[in-house]
Design a protein that fits this description.
Chain lengths: 102, 481
Amino acid sequence: MIPLAWYLTFAAALFCLGLYAVLARQNAVAILMGIELMLNAVIVNLIAFWRYNEPENVSGQAFAIIVFAVAAAEAAVGLALIISIYRRRETVMAEEIDMMKW
Amino acid sequence: MGISNYQMSSVISLLPEVGLLVLAGVVLTMDVLLKDDRKHLIAVTTAVGSLLIILAALMYSQPSGDLIWGGMVRDDMLAFVFRLAFIFAGGITAMFSIGSKELAHRGDYYAIMLGAVIGMCFMASAADLIMLYLAIETTGIAGYLLAGYVRTDDRSAEAGLKYFLFGAATSAVMLYGFSLLYGLTGETNLGAIAPILASGTVSVSAICAIVVLILVGVGFKIAIVPFHFWAPDVYEGAPSPVTGFISTASKTAGFAVLLRVFIYGLAASEYWLPAMAGLAAVTMTFGNLVALAQTNIKRLLAYSSVAHAGYVLVAFVAYSELGVASAIFYLIAYVVTNLAAFGVVIVFAHTAGTDDIQQYAGMSRRSPYLALAMLVAFLSLAGMPPLAGFFAKFYVFAAAVKADMIWLAFVGVLNAIVGLYYYLVVLKVVYVSPAPDGVGSIDIPATCKIALVVLSLGIILIGTASSPWFNWAMKAAQDLF
């Protein structure tokens, strides 16, 4: 059986990739994709821990299901907000969305 | 305090949330059925409904202290106090929304706001990581929608997008921390996690990593340095009633989570207290110093609310019953006071159409009563006796001194002086500067008038008769230790 650590390393790498996308990308859609990667990393983590710790306790599975339900809702709202700003400004680049600065 | 499943009492203890859900349904139905000239009734219904829910909760759902619904929710005094505060904030926000032309007649806006209140109620009572995450996201997603609600306004759309990107990214980081916490302890219930962490089977470095990850998400909600970047932009861009709601209820909900997770759940790990003390000092100082330079009233209140989060953190790092009680008291006083401050901003912008501080010149002649409400709110924010803000700060600093954190209390007092300065500068503009020529009196919508009177009286009442409120907070604090 593949050891737990491999899954955790995979999830950590996925999480860091997502975090890098969030911090480095300028396009709002790309940032949203980075956030989705981070959430996927969490789901991998949860399922791996559930399978290896105590499979008879389903709270890890329940947690994972809740996370991807929330991720879907979040993506829907996020895309709606991106469309709303695209209609006003014709851009989704973070550096051009800068009406308010101190 | 065992876990009890599906009794009538566990349904009754969720009465406020059920009531809010029904109210949201009623509001949406009214939006469809009412004619356009009667749509202001939607806001009135939201406010009256919130009041009825508060009264019903006080009568029927006194907390039992049990874990209910399979351990998802802890029905204790701490949750009860916070939930009442959120429903109060929701009702007041509905009354203020009449003062905003874009929001006043939109039923879906009130329904989304009630959804956010439901999320906050569960943030305060959640005792399980799953429930906690769900509640935080319910609040967050509703908040993003509210901030970006006015699609015809570039600033609101931008505020919504910024709030969303920061919020979703930080909550994903926090969730990663939750997944590690679940993995290392094998439990999702905060009450079950605490003894496992206390037994020392989980390494200190792992706990510290988890604390940092969770603090990113919670820090975003309560807007402490260095997770405050979104606050000024979102506060300025979002419609003012929403700003008032986010800066009070959402921040308080974040603190409810902070108290619950860090004191009830991670009780055994106190390594992070010195770091938190540092964060508190930096947050207070940064918020107050940057607030000095602001020319827009909403940005000023944004930085002032960052500073206020710092004061509450001081009470939190005192890490005692007194500390938690003073944090709760501070938050209640802050909700009432800051709502009043934003109420004045909303009413002023309703007539004048601007948030520029210079435009407030001579407001005391244009509307003496509105200026009086502003005086009460700003002096309370500044911490002047005998108003609510003074006793709140007094208890917080007392708790810090008692916990041998005298330097932190000292930094807090210095900050309070800086705060006093910029609040007084605004009041000087309102009372001393002459009004520009050709401006008339300020028209205050009736519901806003009622809300401002309630809040002003509340500020004075919490200040002059603080002991029953503080006893309440003390009772709530005892649930955590």
